[in-house]
Request: fold
Amino acid sequence: MTTSLKHAFDGFGFIQKYNIDGPSQIVRFRASFIKSRTYKEALKNGHTIVRHFGTDPCKSIFGRFQLLFRNRDATTYSDDSSVTVQMVHNELLALTETTVGNILDPNTLESLGPLISLPYASVLDSEILSMPTAHVMYDEKHKMTVGYSIRITRKGHWLDIIFISDEVSNENKTEDDNEDKWLTGNDRFIYIIDNISERAKAYNRRIRSSTKLYRFPLEYASYMHSASISEDYLILTEVPLHFNKFYAIWNLISGRAVTDMFKWNGETMPTYFRVISLDTGEQIAHIPGPAFFTFHHINSYQVKDNKKKIIVDICAFDDSRIINELFLDKLRENIFPSGTGYFRRFELDLDTNTCIEPNANAREPKGIHCYSYANSLVPIQFELPRINPKFIGKSYRYVYATRAPPGRLFDALIKLDVQSKEQVGLWEEACKSPSEPIFVPRPDANHDQEDDGVVLSIVLDQQAKKSFLLVLDGITFKELARAHLPIHIPLSFHGNFY
Reply:
């Protein structure tokens, strides 16, 4: 028996490390698959044993029906993590949209054990699905890491928000921590804790005692891949792609994918912006706005002369069809008809509980995502947006992204100027597919010049079937260097520079 993974989001986590020695002009490269139970069992058995984003593990109809009632079935939860890496409490984490992360040695990339101590790793009564964000955010002002998860149960839905303080605290510590009952008391993870290292155990204890949980009931459970933070607030976008229990029952029984548990309701329902205080964890506002879909926020910040107004910049689509367009059978046939999203800006007013688009109707609608095109700051389709990390939550000017028009997934790197509303930088070569552009500020920069730094991207040469690390000047967007790799790296999603 074998399994063919079906969706671009289904691959196993492949971690890469690039150690750049500028003076010596040397790049040291290391890479490894995450040695998760899911990965090792797939190699052993020749097929996957757990449900992926777009792939079902081919259980029997009876087995699928049981999943509706056995929410702790350990064989249904993937411990592989393939979306991004983040440094939290001085350890490197590989994260994805499941309840388990992986703690990695930042030098060797070897797995130290699973991250299973976050509050949303605990099972809720009658739980069906939990979808944490892989895009945790670091709040420089409050010295904490911010994350969230959608919790879906047969009895209701919840939004869990977590604040992980930089300071190790015993405020939330219990006797269960001393005896590691948290480790053995959750049979959801019974199959993945046999090889957890003492270092990983200590890290899980530290995260448990440093994390605060805030839980909010949800009328509708939306798919929320990412969010953003301003100086004082966490801003979440509850797009009208909603979990549908009837879809879920049918999909579990019929063996369809997680993607088919959600229904697009954008024709009749808005997107809601949920605003949470980073000081108290309290909800400040729940503001309706235009219906759209998004994977990635670009940035958010509060207006200088009115802190109750928040600018939220998003890479937006008119609807969620992009998810189905990322099934591999379509990508192999180069069926990518709609392209990716556009730069849309929303202004939230906390005093009036309203949302406006300052750039609404800037041009005539055109294309499949015609409303996003008409309302965009820059009429270019792109994804994987990044900015200078020193400007997260602040007024900013430049965005770096991968261009992705219809029929051409990730064909160029672009630099956008938010003030002039135009593209001011372009890198492209025939048959080259760049990954997410990561901006690295110049170490001695005073940040008066926001784009003073370099942009890093892993580029796949489709003809040569090789990859290279590309280095661009952040200001001129001209190529500074490239380092050819000993292997080819398939298109990846996210990374970070540390």
Remarks:
- Residues 219-379 form one domain.
- The first strand starts at residue 14 and ends at 21.
